[in-house]
Specification:
elongated; two-stranded antiparallel ribbon; alpha+beta
Length: 76
């Protein structure tokens, strides 16, 4: 009987805590050929290469920069 009450309490706590934890969980995906510039509260922190990056906490933002080579035709 005590196990059922304990299990129910754990499940209810988890269901209540998930929406709160999502505010602190940030997932950013950087595609191949791009770079992600990571900012926290508006200040530059680092550059991330291609891949999936997870940050915990508040205030994280990422802007993507295209690193692919392009050709430009200049008129003579």
């Amino acid at each position: 009987m005590n196990f059922i009450i304990l299990f129910t309490a754990i499940v209810v706590t988890a269901l209540v805590a998930l929406p709160v934890l999502n505010k602190f969980h940030h997932v950013f995906c950087v595609q191949e050929g791009w770079a992600g510039l990571v900012y926290r509260h508006g200040l530059f922190v680092r550059r991330n290469n291609a891949g999936r990056h997870v940050f915990w906490g508040r205030g994280w933002k990422m802007s993507l920069i295209d690193l692919r080579k392009t050709s430009l035709l200049v008129a003579a």
